[in-house]
Design brief:
There is one protein chain. It is built from six helices and five strands; from the N terminus they run E-H-E-H-E-H-H-E-H-E-H. A five-stranded parallel beta sheet has the order 2-1-3-4-5, with helices on both faces. Helix 5 links the parallel strand 4 and strand 5.
């Protein structure tokens, strides 16, 4: 598995919209402030042509945004702006050969799960099921601390979620 290099203060996190557009600008701005307070720069390509549907842009445009950030050497990690619906529709447009050329940490949850799983399976790189930009402002300090550890390349402290119940013990392949 390809492990992306750790982030350092001053590195750039690309913010992409694989699903819906920014619907709560105050959460977007608060998430930006949090990343900047942690010492990171950010890059966001706002969609110039929103889709007439629920999505940030049409499927091809969202994939092209993802490709552009992935190929940008200034972008060291990528975080989804929000989840929602639509990431699955973008998947056939992704260029797996391009994605295999360099490793980047990709972070998100909800609708992004299909993208994260695809990156792990088809690109053989690490992906993180973690907050999206607009959920960061509502995150507790433990979540922000864990995310900071992941950015720094320290995965040993990863914790299991509390309160999970094992329904059937055993192992799986």
């Amino acid at each position: 598995m390809i492990i992306p290099p750790p982030l350092k203060k001053g590195d750039c996190i690309g913010l992409f919209s694989p699903s819906g557009p920014v619907r709560q600008p105050e959460l977007f701005e608060a998430g930006l402030r949090l990343l900047h307070d942690l010492g990171f720069r950010t890059l966001h390509y706002p969609a110039d042509s929103p889709s007439p549907e629920y999505l940030a842009a049409d499927d091809q445009a969202r994939a092209e945004e993802f490709h552009a950030m992935w190929a940008d050497p200034e972008v060291h990690a990528m975080m989804a702006v929000r989840g929602g619906y639509g990431c699955l529709r973008m998947m056939p447009c992704l260029d797996m050969n391009l994605l295999r050329q360099n490793a980047k940490l990709v972070i998100g949850f909800s609708d992004l799960t299909v993208l994260l799983n695809t990156l792990v399976e088809r690109v053989d790189t690490l992906a993180v099921h973690g907050p999206v930009l607009t959920s960061l402002p509502g995150s507790d300090s433990e979540t922000v601390d864990s995310l900071t550890e992941v950015f720094a390349g320290r995965f040993a402290g990863a914790r299991l979620f509390r309160g999970l119940e094992v329904l059937r013990g055993g192992t799986a392949e």
